[in-house]
Amino acid sequence: MKTSNILIVSFALIISAATLACGMTKIAKTSRTVSVRGLAEREVPADMATWRVSFSVSGNDLPALQREIISKTKIVLDFLGEYDLNEGDYSVLSPEITDTTTNIYLDQSQRKFNYIAKQTVLVRTEKVSKAKAASIDTIDLMGKGVALSSDYDNRVKYEFNGLNEIKPEMIADATKNALLAAEQFAHDSGSKVGKIMSASQGLFSIDDAAVGLEDIKNVRVVTIMVYSLKD
Question: How far apart are CA 114 and CA 106, in angstroms?
Fold first, then answer.
């Protein structure tokens, strides 16, 4: 190859290398980013209460058992009425009857009753404070001859269904907090925050505020934002 051709090829390679280097430098500068998380939390009152008010009765005569179920169910309904919980706030479920005479695993000599019935009044209401007050005062039913079951399922369960109403504000707060974190990072590194490169929203979580405060809910969401950085 002639010397002139070698010089031309070498010069072209130098130019290409310089161009590539400049391009890589430019890409490196524009690809500087920071990923930050923005948290938003809010305490809200529960807006729905669900409560299984259950009691059991037993006996050897079905008609007598029926009368006792009806009588004690009325006592429970009257009790709920004292707390402004009416027919629109509860449903009386069908009683669950167990015939102990058909239980082949039960020692019949130890059997005391032929029938055991469990009756449940299902409370589902937006009157959360009323349901909570009634659940605290259920000891009053003992004085009227009704002993409520102490199963875990019979505890009042509280829900919050108004998430859609507070979602926009909470997402805005989380995004704002993410930007503040990015600006602090940029300040510490001698940079400035640029445009948003990507963003993702985590799932909303709804938990009890604390043990004993199940009727107060803590709503939480985290957003992840990626910002470009510039000098």
Answer: 11
The Cβ of residue 217 has, within 10 Å, a number of other Cβ atoms equal to 23
Residues 27-50 have pLDDT tens digits of 344 568 999 999 999 999 999 999
CA distance 209 to 217: 5
Residue 16 neighbours by CB under 8 Å, 6+ apart: none
Structure tokens at 109: 């000599």
Listed residue (170, 172, 150, 152) closest to 162, CA to CA: 170
- DSSP H helices, 31-123, are 62-81
Give Cα separations from 184 to 35, 190, 191, 222, 229 (angstroms): 12, 10, 10, 18, 12
Structure tokens at 199: 């963003």
Residue 101 to residue 201: CA distance in whole angstroms: 59
> Phi and psi (nearest 5°) for 77?
-65, -40
pLDDT tens sequence across 111-127: 688 899 999 999 999 99
